[in-house]
Amino acid sequence: MINFPTKQKPKQKSKLNFEFFLGIPFYVMIIILVLIPIGMMLLYAFTKTSTGLISIQFTLDNFGEFFIQPTFVSSMIESIYLSFISSLVSLLISYPLAYILSRRKKITQKVIMALITSTMFINSLLLAYAVRSIFEIVGNSFFGDKTYFLGTDFAIITGMVYLYLPFMLLPIYTHMTKIDKNLFESASDLGANKTQTLIRVIIPMSLSSVLTGFMMVFLPASTTLVITKYLGNGQRKMIGDLIDLAIKNGKFGYGAAIALVLAAILILMVSIIKKVDKYEGVLANEE
Question: Reduced to 3 states, what is the DSSP secondary structure of residue 281?
Answer without folding.
Answer: coil
